[in-house]
TrEMBL record:
This is Ribosomal RNA small subunit methyltransferase H. It catalyses: cytidine(1402) in 16S rRNA + S-adenosyl-L-methionine = N(4)-methylcytidine(1402) in 16S rRNA + S-adenosyl-L-homocysteine + H(+). GO terms for molecular function: rRNA (cytosine-N4-)-methyltransferase activity. It comes from Candidatus Sungiibacteriota bacterium. S-adenosyl-L-methionine binds at residues 30-32, 50, 77, 98, 105. One of its GO terms (cellular component) is cytoplasm.
Length: 290
């Protein structure tokens, strides 16, 4: 079961009310969507979006008790405006983005998101979106491109050395699985607080799915969709995401009232119960009524 991060805080800042409409732009397992649907009863509708059809299948089962008030759509949240128009959910009062990838991606070892599993280096959220995989990047990208990806998207201080290591290794064998890549890096770089492959895996996931570009598009169009007085909440998990959200909110000071002058972090209790929440940051804002 997907554990929703910062659930209490999300509900506090979004403050969903009876009969309002809402959008969960990254519905994952429905952990945030379920209490939001309860709060906007009896007539409020929630549109839930996810790129991964396998996640939507399980989420649909979880939310079936809400009937046609729960509307699920497969798609990229970068296209939130078109998806919302097609679903008939216009001018919502609450929009949530939880930018972390779901625990569903880690549970079945099929796509190489986790370096703890012996799974193919795929890393696409939706295999229909693109033919580019992490394996293709690792085995074919030039050293300079690998270094750029690791440095830009992973903020990895050993980006150049790791890129050189990968290029040397692939001359002898194709690097095919998450375990192959993680073991290669772990055998050549000392373990710190984090596994030495952590930032490389983050960088590859972001590059394969073009995540940062989609965040900019998605939150920009979400603001246009949002009803006057509506609330927007965004949970990020690393500095690259948080920086985009922070500067976007600041750039919209004529339109948005920032509700979180500093990002809200999870409590120690939540981190103890759900270690994946430890890096989460929540920022929220309200659309001004002109």
């Amino acid at each position: 079961m997907h554990k929703p991060v910062l659930l209490h805080e999300v509900l506090e800042y979004l403050h969903p009310q009876p009969n309002e409409n809402a959008i969960d732009a990254t519905i994952n397992g429905g952990g945030h969507a379920e209490p939001m649907l309860e709060a906007i009863a009896p007539r409020g509708k929630l549109l839930g979006i996810d790129r991964d059809p396998s996640i939507l299948k399980e989420t649909k089962e979880r939310l079936k008790k809400f009937g046609d008030r729960a509307i699920l759509a497969e798609g990229n949240f970068a296209n939130i405006a078109t998806i919302a128009e097609d679903a008939g959910v216009l001018h919502p009062s609450c929009i949530l983005f939880d930018l972390g990838f779901s625990s569903y991606h880690l549970a079945p070892a099929k796509r190489g998101f986790s370096f703890l599993e012996d799974a193919p280096l795929d890393m696409r959220y939706n295999r229909q979106d693109s033919s580019c995989t992490a394996e293709a990047l690792i085995n074919h990208a030039i050293p300079e491109e690998l270094e750029r990806i690791f440095k830009t998207y992973g903020e990895e201080r050993n980006a150049g050395r790791i890129a050189e290591l990968i290029v040397r290794e692939r001359k002898h064998r194709r690097i095919q699985t998450a375990k192959d890549l993680a073991t290669l890096i772990a055998n050549n770089f000392p373990r710190d607080r984090l596994h030495p492959a952590t930032k490389v895996f983050q960088a590859l996931r972001i590059a394969v799915n073009d995540e940062l570009t989609h965040i900019e598009r998605g939150i920009r169009d979400a603001l246009l969709l949002l009803a006057p007085g509506g609330r927007l909440a965004i949970i990020s998990y690393h500095s690259l995401e948080d920086r985009i959200v922070k500067y976007f909110f600041r750039s919209q000071k004529e339109t948005l009232a920032i509700l979180t002058p500093k990002p809200v972090a999870p409590s120690r209790e939540e981190i103890a119960q759900n270690p994946r929440a430890r890096s989460a940051k929540l920022r929220a804002a309200q659309k001004k009524v002109v």
